[in-house]
Write a structure and sequence with these properties.
The chain is of the alpha+beta class. Helix content is 28%, strand content 18%. It binds guanosine-5'-monophosphate and zinc ion. GO terms for molecular function: catalytic activity.
Amino acid sequence: MTPRDKDCIFCKIVAGAIPCAKVFETEHCLAFLDIAPVHPGHVLVMPKGHYATLMDIPAELGADLTATLSRVGKAVMEATAADGLNLMQNNFEAAGQVVHHAHFHLIPRHAGDGLTLWPQSGYESSDEMSGLAKIIAGLLK
Ligand code: 5GP
Ligand code: ZN
């Protein structure tokens, strides 16, 4: 059964209780315009089921989600005559997640649009970098 959260604004959109500017849907995914776009044509793609973060989305939805992101992304670029496209995804409040129903932002970008991406830093040493890689890899065994 598809999980729902009665207090979730995106579940209400899936149920049709709150309107949205829908652009595409599949059995498991819905794509609609963000109400406060970074640029016009900014689309949100999400699983119809209520999963709080990326890490909660069942792996079996992966093919549907990636195919939807790719297909919608192409249409967004064409519709907005974009030069580029950002795929953004926020998990938990510390990372900027406001709506706790996992979703992906497709943001059309135009050459010279003035938006900057987040700053990059570095590692203190190559040991710090390889140590962290080992810890993450160990958790994935
Ligand atoms: P987050 O920060 O959680 O990754 O992004 C949430 C996004 O949902 C924001 O960009 C916000 O503009 C959008 N949003 C919030 N409420 C609604 C709504 O009711 N309808 C639509 N279409 N977008 C919404
Ligand atoms: Zn939800």
